[in-house]
Amino acid sequence: MISWRRLAEPDFPLLRRWLQQPHVSRWWNHETSAEAVARDFGPAARGAEPAEDLLVLLDGEPVGLVQRCRYGDYPEHLAELAPILAVDVEAVSLDYLIGEPRWTGRGLGPRIIRAIVRATWTDYPAAPSVVVPVSVHNRASWRALEKAGFARVAEGELTPDNPVDDRRHYVYAVDRSGG
């Protein structure tokens, strides 16, 4: 059973370990010192910013993280997407990782994404869609989105999460009627 709860400060050592995993660090180019994790994830954990960092549990065991936010709360992301795709301010964005290596490649990613999207329609009643940009090079991520029911709706250049990647991104979406 997949469930989640808001990430809390006691979870930071686990998150830090996940961010150091090669399969995560390749796509989540993130500083992994204890101070950096607290700095970057602390505001959401305390509810001091509009994004949600959700610790994903499988049968009660922490396995991953989902970040969820409204595009209207982060106008810089909305503005960067504008030349590629018109996105409603109420649309929701997701980012996700499976931190535990033993759970990668087993179909868990699409299950998590589907569950979060279903909850999003209740948690964000004004959201017309969930829109997720992903590096064209991150095949595992965009395949998970496709398996979760997302469609590729655009392609274009966006700032990569990891500077080793070029700017090419696919944009995937699912709307309320399809999710």
TrEMBL record:
List UniProt keywords, sorted A-Z: Acyltransferase, Antibiotic resistance, Transferase
Can you provide one Gene Ontology molecular function annotated for this UniProt record?
acyltransferase activity
Give the matching SUPFAM superfamilies.
Answer: Acyl-CoA N-acyltransferases (Nat)
Q: Which residues form the signal peptide?
A: none
Q: Which residues form the N-acetyltransferase domain?
A: 2-177
Q: Which PROSITE patterns match?
A: GNAT
Q: Supply the EC number(s).
A: 2.3.1.-
Which Pfam families has this protein been placed in? Acetyltransf_8
- Gene3D superfamilies (alphabetical): 3.40.630.30
Q: Which InterPro entries match?
A: Acyl_CoA_acyltransferase, GNAT_dom
**What name does UniProt use for this protein?**
GNAT family N-acetyltransferase
Q: What is the lineage of its organism?
A: Bacteria, Bacillati, Actinomycetota, Actinomycetes, Pseudonocardiales
